[in-house]
Specification:
The protein is an all-alpha fold. Helix content is about 85%, strand content about 0%.
Length: about 60
């Protein structure tokens, strides 16, 4: 005999998977945004390092 709760468990699992799919769909955009922020931070750091080096360079 089949478990009478089986349809309910299937529905609950489907809902869990739907939510997981939504979360996973957001991740690539979040990763790209963070990577872009890090690229900007690297550029700022490089520029600041160059400026400091130029300030301390003997003339």
């Amino acid at each position: 005999m089949l478990d009478p709760e089986l349809p309910e468990r299937i529905t609950a699992r489907r809902a869990e998977l739907d939510e997981l799919e939504k979360q996973l769909a957001k991740q690539p955009a979040e990763v790209r945004a963070e990577r872009d922020e890090l690229t900007v931070a690297e550029r700022v750091l490089e520029r600041m390092t160059e400026e400091l080096a130029n300030e301390h360079r003997p003339t």
